[in-house]
Amino acid sequence: MTEPVEQLLAVLSLEKLEEDLFRGTSPDVGWQRVFGGQVIAQALSAAIRTVPQERGCHSLHSYFLRPGDPKVPIVYTVDRIRDGGSFTTRRVVAMQHGEAIFSLSASFQRHEEGFEHQITMPDIPKPDELPHGEALEEILKNAPSAVQRYWKRPRAIEFRPVVLDHYISGKKLDPYQHVWVRCRGEIGDDPVSNTVVLAYLSDMTLLDTALFAHGLSVFDERVQAASLDHAMWFHRPVRVCDWMLYTQDSPSSSGGRGLTRGSLYGLDGTLVASVAQEGLIRPRRPAS
Q1: pTM passes above 0.85
Q2: What distance in Å separates the CA atoms of residue 259 and residue 254, rounded to the nearest whole number?
Q3: What's the average model confidence in pLDDT over 217-231?
Q4: Strand (E) positions, the chain?
Q5: Which residues are catalytic?
């Protein structure tokens, strides 16, 4: 297991303060606000700690209410909404400085056999066929410095985008993208760890897709970007240390908001999860 992966798992492992009350911390990476995927994953982790082990999360719906402060802990309160015969429902509120910064509702279900179907994974180049390492750095050498710093930063999650044009060209593109993604270290088959890390990485690269149609990216200083809400459906078991294809599209942007959708497939084409997110993509106004 690599050091960034160990650090990620440590961040997602919450301290229990009291029954249904947990505390999480943020890594010291110099960010001005807490990464949204971290809060999603920590809140989900808190909910899971209150649910019978045989029930896995099948969906979550969440709202980002205020920017998180990475310098202070986040306290998660779990409300046990319902424990039914087949489904369990939990609500989680994340608090900092006496105020709610995030809320999440999650539903859990014991395994059932039933109808099965899925859409087909797009036929695109596999991860080993795409530039990475020094080849990727060479492609991005003319990209803005913020983009280069992002891709060079050590992290627990590895990405291999199929196309990188939106970082370089500044052209308006069709609002969809394909990104191969995986955890950089082996975390085993534990379903809880894999589910929580999948939730964490699902917030990465997604909002950027809404800016393709405008010739911009989330790294552009002309854009104010932030996640507003995030929903996720877990369809089938997953191993996040194996490559997954994250297909994304943005059907609409309006009112300073962009809507994005994503599908996560295993390397064998199995659809493991679906994602939807609306984010703020507001043009920055010149300082007066």
Answers
A1: yes
A2: 9
A3: 92
A4: 15-18, 21-24, 55-64, 74-83, 87-96, 99-110, 157-161, 176-183, 223-234, 244-254, 257-266, 271-283
A5: 203, 227, 277
